[in-house]
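[[Encoded backbone]]
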Amino acid sequence: MKNLIFLLFLSAFFSVKAQDADAILKSVVDKLNKVDDYTVDANIKADIPMIKILPVKATLYFKQKDKFKVVSKGIAILPKQGFTDINAFLNKKGAYMAVEGGTKTVQDIKTTLVTVIPTGENSEFVLAKLWIDTKRSIILESQITTRGSGTVSVSYKYGEQAEYGLPSVLEFTVDVKKFKMPKSVAADIHDTEGKDNKKKHKDTGTIVITLSNYKVNKGLSDEIFKKKN
């Protein structure tokens, strides 16, 4: 009898936690969905072991629900995990389950951890941990594991566009061995390994994206996403 009562208590506890997590995520998604489209300038700095990449300037275009384009004259290493892909995934109701998992101070702000677990066997996402500022309904930190690129950790900072859930700075920490690089960059890594294979290198790299000059909900044409760079 005691075991049954304990199991019922656990079931009720996790049910409440799931409901709380769903409510928190809904607030985050509702804020992101205020954005129909945007254009923003990006400055991308990558510090990846074994390769030298100069800072790159780019222009990013987004339109609901999943149109996204990067225009740049250089090689723009732009991780979509924690940026556009996670936002699109969170919009798929029924594609995941979420559980609240305690609190953590991030950037001097108390956040709530929400763990997101995909329910589909074929999902590219394996697991997402999101530390959310529940007062503003924005993600301040995430740790996202995918089948193709391993685990990517992201720190988010916000400016004037926080009301839309759009960050001003994103700092990615990536697993160099698993993260998918552009083909030209991957070739450089291969060459460097051959020349200098005796040296030990870090397993992680960082990519910092600074975003400025947002133009939100100005009505982007679909033609922008059809044109080649």
Notes: Residues 14-193 form a domain with the outer membrane lipoprotein receptor (LolB), chain A fold (CATH 2.50.20). DSSP finds four helices and ten strands in the chain. The radius of gyration is 20 Å.
